[in-house]
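Technical note accompanying the year-one report. For the benefit of new consortium partners, we illustrate the data format agreed upon in the data management plan: each record pairs a sequence with a structure-token string. No post-processing was applied to the example shown here.
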Amino acid sequence: MSNSVTIQSPLLQLPRELRDRIYSYIFSGYIPFLEKCGVVDTSDENAIFHELPGLCQANRQLFHEATPLFLARSTDSWNTTTSKQLLKLYSHFAGDAATKGVTDISIYNWTEQGTAVQLDLISKFTNLQFLDVVFSFPSIVDGVPMERFNYTNEQGIWWETGLNYIPSPGRSIEEEKAAMSKDLDAFITRYGLDRIIDMPKLNSMQFQFAMNDGGENVTGGNIYYRHRLCNPLWRWAMKKLSEKWGDDEFGVTTTLPEDYDGVNCHAD
């Protein structure tokens, strides 16, 4: 990347507002690297999220003007390594110049070990409105693969017990509810969700659970699960965002209908 700027550049002679519109138009058709890449390389030398478009790399001025606009529309993280690389990229910009335009982000392999990095990244986005997360585990025992999940059965269990799964052997329904509440609180704290949901402009969330026994660096390795925390986590987030924004001003999804009573009518 050159440190000099040719003053004869027709692009750089245009007003900044017009240049920004040109940058945005160019990036509108750009396909993020993650979508084009079939193999994830997590070495320090290779970014697994973005190869910056050539426009961003033409010279220093274009890097600082155009890159924030590119990142504002194309911010996804495949795993912990990707988030570290994004943090390094953002460090080249003063203050919030490159992060203030980010209003939504997707994180596809959020592991417990990578939580500190993910929270550090998310905290940079002071205007964040939507967060999409896939919590990834090497194995899952408290759930079933989505291909074997039966929504009607879960709905029936809820209507009968107030739980979204069959209680553990030897536990009463009330004991199971207490255990679930404890597990939910621990999960929220462990992953910093209590801090995220209080971000000033956040009004929408989507979360899923997945098993990736090959590790978070394996692209396409996620097997999606219906975890027993899905519905309780949805209810927690709905309550928090409702208190924050009021009715109809927010959204939470797990990609499935979670309001059992609002999906189908009770059987006669």
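Partners are asked to follow this layout when depositing records. The chain has ten helices and seven strands.
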